[in-house]
Specification:
Blueprint lengths: L36 E4 L4 E2 L4 E2 L4 E6 L8 E2 L15 E5 L5 E6 L7 E6 L1
Parallel strand pairs: 1-4, 3-8
Antiparallel strand pairs: 1-2, 4-6, 5-7, 7-8
This protein binds copper (II) ion.
The site of copper (II) ion (CU) has 6 residues, from loops.
């Protein structure tokens, strides 16, 4: 009698071909920023209240066809200048912790608050 019960463990895939993730050297363990991105889309900032680190460099991506800016409303804490539709820009967060309102100079109803920690 040959009752084939021994080979049915539910695994019908061949041995895993996925390499161990340990071979990747591209993931620093520190949660340091540097990759914060603000998106402009449909005449709004996303996120509208980004949390960043003091002095962090922030990328701004404009997905609209209209030009936008990210401009601090108080003083000139930061300002991307004009970012044409489909383009991106950068700015550097203030070195001082706090909350900084910003606006698009072309569209005053586009507002947000940069939270610097
Ligand atoms: Cu705008």
């Amino acid at each position: 009698m040959l009752l084939a019960t021994a080979c049915s463990d539910g695994t019908d895939e061949p041995a895993s071909t996925s390499p161990s993730p340990a071979t990747s050297s591209s993931s620093p363990s520190s949660p340091t920023a540097g990759t914060k991105t603000i998106t402009m889309e449909d005449f709004a900032f996303s996120p509208a209240n980004p949390e960043v680190r003091a002095g962090e460099k922030i990328t701004v991506v404009n997905k609209d066809s209209a030009a936008h800016t990210v401009t601090a409303t108080e003083g000139d804490a930061f300002d991307t200048g004009t970012i044409s539709g489909g383009k991106s820009g950068t700015f550097t967060a203030p070195a001082k912790v706090g909350e900084y309102d910003f606006v698009c100079t072309f569209h005053p109803n586009m507002t947000g608050t940069l939270i610097v920690r």
